[in-house]
Amino acid sequence: MAGFFDGLVNKLTELADSTGLTDTVHQHLADLTSPSGISTLLAQAEQAGLGDKVRSWIGNGQNLPVSPDELRSILSNQQVQALVDKTGLPAATILPALAQFLPAAVDHQTPGGAPPAA
Hints:
Elements: H1 2-19, H2 22-32, H3 35-47, H4 51-58, H5 68-74, H6 77-87, H7 91-109
């Protein structure tokens, strides 16, 4: 799993490097996968009717995929706009990258199969 996670981080890093935004991208990814970020993400997914997807990332077993559109329905307008503002990348670039990265990142941050204490 670590190799897969590292590969995703490397791809996002390459994208960030090409735009000069490595530190900003890493900070936002760290925020989304922090204990409070994961708890918020789960709560928002529940409200959007997609809690089963995020719970699969936290739980043991296969991670259910999420589409950029589903991720957009999970994240608040403020969260998406903050990513756009701080990275300078359009949402159309950020959301597909997050849709690929986030399930594995959340899974990596929850090895015990339970949401972290926020």
